[in-house]
Amino acid sequence: MTPGARAILALLPLLILLQPCAAAELEELTLLDEHVIDGVPAGNLSGLERCGDSLWTVSDREDDRFYRLIPQAGGEPWQVEVETFVAPPAPDVGLSAGLRSSAWVLGKMRGGELDFEGLACDMAGNRYLVSESQAAVLQIPLAAPPSWLPLPPALVRQARASGMLQQYNSLFEGIVINPEGDRLWLAAEREKRGLLALQKRKGGWACSDGCVLMSEGGREDTPKGDSMPRDFSGLSLFDGKLYTLERATYRICRRSLKHGDAERCWSFAREGLTEARDYGKTWGMAEGLVVDANGAWIMLDNGKHARGDGEDRPILWRFAAPARGWGANP
């Protein structure tokens, strides 16, 4: 055996330990509460964020509003407070003609031509909605008209060169911004999925050392017993780390801000796939994520379909933080 081969064999135990998302090693999160969300006729809630003292959400079927969630006592369905806005025409960010036309047809068929899939906010009170169909970000200030962020042309160009943003309805699915409002991260959904980062400078938004933190393709076995493309469906920022919501595999992963590498993952499959909560093969996908010191909020996009117990309204889950905290290593 060559010295190189012996060195690789010696490292194998360490390499195995460093696989943070191996299914057999995932800690299962504990469900504390689940809340039915009432008052959203279009359903399809697909983003979640804590802005100030409240949780906010957005539907990918509505281009002119988002919702503040209003908790209710005694297990009653949570209500919503609607805030409306008028989005100006979206910019041309360099998507192919095929992607643009497919998004237009899909929007006309189902509603929600801008297909807002994620929501973020900064400490100044600005809200940010990411449009999947337009691969663009709408900023909604507290006291000024909405406007589209002037994202750099390199963003879409580099994403596509890395294999992302190739299929319609599989573009940007998640967004998060730091409290200061000068660092922004986006998640590309699938085939390939990936993470992208931008910084705000005097001349506008730019990418430092490239826009793409990571991209990867392939498929994964799911807790439902099938195989699905690797995906991201939501982002959260907590304690200097990115947290990705990976709906097909029912897990949350902590990732490096610098490279997007997965450091540790946790599963919510045990609680999310009980007979009463299961929607079947297609619906009931987790699409909104907020991580905090005490746990995680997860919003389900049920597409107005009923789960095992017959409930067909949107559902919000509250999970406890891992036993040793989000920062613990395996």
UniProtKB/TrEMBL annotation:
Report if keyword Acetylation is assigned. no
Q: Does the keyword Transmembrane apply?
A: no
The UniProt keyword set, sorted, is: Signal
Pfam families (alphabetical): Phytase-like
The superkingdom of the source organism is: Bacteria
- Chain ranges passing through the membrane: none
Query: Domain Phytase-like, which positions?
Result: 41-191
Residues making up the signal peptide according to the UniProt record: 1-24
**Protein's UniProt name:** Esterase-like activity of phytase
Q: What is the lineage of its organism?
A: Bacteria, Pseudomonadati, Pseudomonadota, Gammaproteobacteria, Pseudomonadales
